[in-house]
Amino acid sequence: MSITYTPWPGSFAKKYRERGYWTDRPLLDLIENAPQENIAVICGERSLSYQNLCSQSKRLAVYFQDLGLCTGDTALVQLPNVAEFYVVFFALIRLGVAPVNALFSHNKNELTAYAKQIEPKIIIASNEHALFHDSAFFSTLSVSSKELPHVLLVGKSEWAESLENVLSSSTSTLLTALPSKAHDVAFFQLSGGSTGTPKLIPRTHNDYFFSVRRSTEICHFTAATKYLCALPCAHNFPMSSPGAFGVFHVGGCVVMSPSPDPNTCFELIERYRVTVAALVPPALTLWLQAAQLNKAALSSLQLMQVGGAKLSESLARQVPIVLGCQLQQILGMAEGLVNYTRLDDDFETIVTTQGRPMCSLDEVKIINNAGEDVAAGEIGELITRGPYTIRGYYKAPDHNAKVFDSEGFYHSGDLVRRNDNGYLTVVGRDKDQINRGGEKIAAEEIENLLLKHEQIMHSALVSMPDSMMGEKSCAFIVPKAAGHGMKSIMLRKYLRGLGVADYKVPDRFEFIDSLPLTPVGKPNKVVLREEIRQRLQSNSELDKTL
Ligand code: J2J
Predict the structure, then answer these.
(1) Which of 137, 400, 434, 473 has its CA 20 to 30 A from that of 24?
(2) Which UniProt keywords apply (predicted)?
(3) Which atom of ligand 1 is least distant from the CA of 426?
């Protein structure tokens, strides 16, 4: 049985195939067609060749097959930046089991929400994550039949099977299972979201493979590419733009970094002669500072890709001077569309825009509130459809009706301007989301959790400006009673107690008597954002006078 998703209409699918965009090959080809002797992944002191990656993922697939997993099943995976992430991914792909790859920063709240949606047959996680130190959390994750899923952990564990054990044990069983069909769901990406429950993005082999392949062409990836995976490996950017999968497609090498911290990364770049790195803007800021002291370590670096959140022009201009390499800006989204500045673009285009779509069949419109196309150079919402942009979230008909229109365009909620050459510049957002330096927070999700607090009457989460992160989050709270005695620290503790990922816990709380409302009676977030901006400004004025 295959996993249900909203397919592209037949006429579109036909066009994508005729153009050679969809090749009807499984993602497994990414590693199987690479030169097997090349090193695919370096992780700590370990180097895995493509042959190792293929054989380990095959061994693991046999184990999954023995457990009874098969095409159409799903898996919940949460791993840090380690080589096992890819071993597990391709092992599942071999059987047609579709994973959701949760971020390592995700916690009980997020994993539970994903598990509810996909009802996984197996959980694959790391003993490094506090949630998996014992079986307490796992035992809450029963699937619909009330059976617990299987569990497999990376690292030693007293309560679960370990991946290392499986890989080191021999088997005579043959792998008979096959990947799902190329037009079927290969795995789920995570949506940054703007709703109460995190939405899942079904990605097919055909659409994702195309996105990866085309990205490698645009970014000139070759077998000589050494790519530093410093962002969370499960995120769409380091996975596919061109990311690790792009590297695999061309037989290059991925160097895993546990974090984007410049000290760790610079050492890896120097040691392995890394050629490409991908960062979000706050990490880039730290790299620019660190490079002032240690530019020599970066001598092999040729390309710095930056995306996930708006990069300021002033930071962009520093990249070639301070890091000694070329900058590429990327405006991407896990739903599909990815825009790149091209390597041969003029410098002004590279520092002032976030690129243009990667292929000619990406249809991008920029519309006003009435749904009409705006004039060139005017600001509007980016809407799009194309060969690798989904037509619907997983099992979310109500939300889909809101963000996909009748022609199949995805309404991104990004406010952009397009220049005469088709390059996009992001100028704002018209979705209820905070972009905390590339990490997305759906306001409604946090507001709903706050509303469950017995002393809270209303809550509204908005972004506030931050020099390092671009944006941070501020929760406006209307208490039920005067003299409530609530403190920020208590509410932080409360949210952490609910198992909310740390990055989603509001950076600031403001207690107010009532929320300003829009004419239709919704919290007026424009007013709230302005309010917090002014409060921050007067605080910093105050700091200056002290
Ligand atoms: C401003 N906002 C940006 C940019 C994304 C490559 C790169 C990034 C992502 C990603 C990705 C931005 N400037 N350069 O999936 O493959 C904001 C927009 C967008 C949302 C998508 C990839 N680059 N954004 O960030 O799904 O608001 O994907 O709609 O996490 O991030 O977030 P996400």
Answers:
(1) 400
(2) Ligase
(3) 1
